[in-house]
Structures are given as C-alpha cells and as structure tokens.
Design a protein that fits this description.
The structure is a homodimer. Chain A is of the alpha+beta class and about 230 residues long. Chain A has 2 domains: about 120 residues, Nucleoside Triphosphate Pyrophosphohydrolase; about 70 residues, Winged helix-like DNA-binding domain superfamily/Winged helix DNA-binding domain (Arc Repressor Mutant, subunit A, Orthogonal Bundle), CATH 1.10.10. Helices cover about 30% and strands about 30% of the residues of chain A. Chain A is built from 5 helices and 11 strands, in the order E-E-E-E-E-H-E-E-E-H-E-H-H-E-E-H. In chain A, strands 2, 3, 4, 5, 6, 7 and 8 form a 7-stranded mixed β-sheet that branches. In chain A, a hairpin with a 4-residue loop joins strand 2 and strand 3. The longest helix of chain A is centred in the middle third of the chain and has 18 residues. Chain A is elongated, with a radius of gyration of 20 Å. The termini of chain A are far apart. In chain A, about 30% of the residues are buried. At the A-B interface, strand 1, helix 1 and strand 6 of A face strand 1, helix 1 and strand 6 of B. Strand 1 of chain A pairs antiparallel with strand 1 of chain B, so a sheet runs across the interface. Chain A binds a DNA duplex (27 and 27 nucleotides) through helix 4. Chains A, B: This is NUDIX hydrolase. Chains A, B: Keywords: Hydrolase. Chains A, B: InterPro entries: Nudix_hydrolase, NUDIX_hydrolase-like_dom_sf, NUDIX_hydrolase_dom, WH-like_DNA-bd_sf, WH_DNA-bd_sf, WHD_NrtR. Chains A, B: GO terms for molecular function: hydrolase activity.
DNA sequence: TCAAAAGTGTTGGAATTACACCCATGC
DNA sequence: GCATGGGTGTAATTCCAACACTTTTGA
C-alpha cells in the first residue's frame, strides 16, 4: 500500500515531554530507541500522526502505546519544523507536554521491546534529534505556567499536604518560599478543599491532606478570578 | 510530478493572524479566497509548507506572497489539526500571529488576483475553515502576552507618544487605565528612550515622542528584570 | 480666547515580606 | 524525652489606586 500526492509533504509527528514528580525530584520520561537513526539513544515518546486523527489524540495514543500512560494532563507545547531536525527527511513535530504523578501513574517500564525510564532533569542523557531543545522549551513553559495556572496539582497525588505543594513550587521555580506566607496565599485562593485525613506512616506529626477543588476553581474563573502563586 | 509515501500523510500548512493598529482600532488582515472551498470567503493568509523549508520561514513566505508584508514581528501561535477542519482532506495547520503598524506597513491590497483587507476585530466577516477559532486564539494570546512581554511596541510606529501607548493597552485589554499611574509605571521600567522630537501637525500641545529601547530591554532581561504592565 | 490634549505628585489603603516559637507524633 | 516536621500571627515596608489642576499649542 502506498500514497501519492501532487506535491511533496513533510512527515508529521507528535512528541511528548512527560514530567513526573516523586519525593526527590522533577523527572522526565524517556524511551530508548531500538532502531536507527540514533539507535540506543534516549528520546521523547512520540510517533507519526495518522490521517483522520486529531493531533491531540495522536499525542495521547502515542503516550498510551509507548508508556501505557492514560488520562493524564496533556497540553500542546510548540511545533518544531527545522528541515534537518531528522536526518532521514523533513519531519515536522507538534510537541506536547504531560504532567503526571510519578507514584500514582507508574508506567509499565517496557511496553514493546523498548525501555522507558525516568530521568531527573539535572542528570539527562544526550537526547536523539532536537529533543533536548524540545525538553528545554517544555521546562520553560512549565515554569511560566506554574505561576498563573493551577497545573502544579497535576504533579501531585489527589490528596497532598501543603508542604508537598510548597516543595513542588520551590523545585520547579528554583527558589525558596516562606512557609507561612505560602500557606496564607494558597489558602486565600479558596481552591483547596481541606479533607478530614492526615498523612499516615510518618515519623513525626502527620500533616493535613488537601485536595484541589476543580469545580470551585472553574466557578471562580467565571467571576474574573485570577490564579497566581 | 508526484510524490509517493508508504503511509498516508496529512497536508501541512501555516496560517497567519496579522494584527494591525491604526488610529481607531485593532484590525486584522484577511484575504478573500478565489477558489473553492469557501470561494469568496475571507480567510487568514497562509499556505502549504514546502519540504525543506522551516515552518517559520514558510509563514514568512506566505505572508510576503499574499500580503507583501516583510520584516514584521512573527511568532508561532498554536497548531490546529482537527481531521475535518478542511473539507477536502486532513490538513494540519501551524498558526502564527504577526504584529504590524498599520500606517508604516501598508500591505499592497491585492497581490495576485486576490483581495486583501483590514477588518476591525469587532466587525468581522464569517471566516473560512476554522479560521475564526484561530483568530480568537490569537486574540487571547495577544491579550495575555501584552502584560508581560513588550510586544505592544510592535504595533506602534518607531516613535510614539505615551498616550498612543496607553490607548493601545486600553484597546487590547479592554479596560481603562489611569493616565498618571500608567506613565509612572512605564517610565520606571527604563526601556523607553525619550527622543528630542515632539508630535507635529496636531491641533493642540504636541506630545513628546518615545522609542522602545530594545538593547536596554535585553540587557535588563539578563539581570532578571521582568517586564510587566 | 478657546478647545484639546499634555503633563505632573500626593496620600490612604492593600498587599507583601520578614521573621520565631510551640505543637503533635513516632520512635 | 527527643527528633522531626506541622502549624500559626504580627509588624514594617512596599506597592498600587485614586484623584484634579496647570500648561502648551494651533485654530
């Protein structure tokens, strides 16, 4: 089977930068390539867009197929189209980024023959293609959006402590935050629901668990509320 | 001549939302289509990405060919890939937005047989394809970026008055701004160069002209300065 | 001399920062 | 009982919003 067109077309792919948070670090999920070019190099999960498939759907499908992740936060990042970014031919890629909680969404490590692994952001291997650049773009976007959209919660488990939330901000923004001021600010937003639960299995006073209240957030949005942390 | 591939490929285009400011209004540049589908409908300038051509370059080329605009501020906006956004076949488009000063960059109205015209944003015709949605996305992006990046200057002539700058912000953000506070804020940024010139041909006291100091802005950026208005 | 827009400071209230100690829990 | 992080309030400062009149110019 083959397909013929009157004019040459670049190939079109989607690639996805998956950020995950664990106790220590912000990490990114990479796939080890099993075919040339860049055989054995680490790369972003991704693949060709099918005709008739929406691009968001394509990104989700590739994510599912290569990492078994589904139902995750996924947003379009940027498109990269330098004609020699792939040595084989002109391949344009629409990059996405995803946010997952590393502990809840443990992806199957190896789906097909390929290895998948989490890498801390400050200890990355050299990536295939221009994926290093794409990753850097995603990182900047994450830093930028964290301040004025409530996307940080996507990296945490459903219920989390205020200290976990604060550490997340400190890690991604790379700055120290005052504990009392942070709590004051967060609570005043009015989008955290205080649960009845507290941490378990900790060797010190257990912290209260909170939940992000999506409905409340959307209701406030309509009233002209602006998230900012 | 024809091109054959093993797998089907969506077609790939770039489209561009060109914003222009004149004395009255924020306007957008549209092209009247001369062939089906959507014959005679107004649409965004754009066209197919060529193999071997960077996508930014493609957007610039289309802009030049269809509107004779060049050397303008151009930035990638978002990619749209719904499989039925074009009735003929699956066409993915990478949308850009451009900012020009309407008076300095008067595009030739009609390049080939096609008509080009400026439309005020609050009096738009129904656009071809999903171009209405793309335009709306560009408008939101412009509103969002205006606050924290110095892109407003791209819509003004090289030398402008503070009142012109203020009116620009008021129009795009759709809110009134206090004159004294605005001037205080803008001047404190330290990225406006005061020229020796004043307005001419005005029937009242002539206002001082200012210029955006790109070099100064970039120098400040490196020192961790954050633009905000 | 009139019309039209340019230009200019002060003050009160709100928001933000800096900062330190007691509490609860598990070992 | 001690080590570990949880949880809390106040005072000083900075930032922001509100506000009105005089000046310059051309017609």
């Amino acid at each position: 089977m083959s397909y013929t067109y009157e004019y040459a077309r670049p190939a079109l792919t989607t690639d996805c930068v998956v950020f995950g948070l664990d106790d220590e670090d912000l990490k990114v999920l990479l796939i080890q390539r099993d075919i040339p070019p860049y055989e054995a190099r680490w790369a972003l999960p991704g693949g060709f867009v099918r005709v008739g498939e929406d691009i968001d759907e394509s990104a989700r499908r590739e994510l599912r197929e290569e990492t078994s992740l589904k139902n995750v936060f996924l947003e379009q990042l940027y498109s990269f189209g330098h004609p020699r970014r792939d040595p084989r031919e002109h391949v344009v890629t629409i990059a996405y980024y995803a946010l997952v909680n590393l502990l809840e969404h443990q992806p199957r490590a190896d789906t097909d023959a390929r290895k998948a692994a989490w890498f801390p952001l400050d200890d990355l291997p050299t990536l295939a293609f221009d994926h290093g650049k794409i990753l850097e773009t995603a990182r900047e976007r994450l830093r930028g959006k964290l301040r004025y959209e409530p996307i940080g919660f996507e990296l945490l488990p459903e219920k989390f402590t205020l200290t976990e939330l604060q550490k997340l901000y400190e890690r991604i923004l790379d700055e120290e935050i005052d504990k009392r001021n942070f709590r004051k600010k967060v609570k005043k937003l009015g989008i955290l629901e205080e649960t009845e639960e507290v941490q378990s299995d900790v060797a010190h006073r257990a912290a209260r668990l909170y939940r992000f209240d999506q409905k409340q957030y959307k209701a406030l949005l309509k009233k002209g509320f602006n998230f900012e942390l």
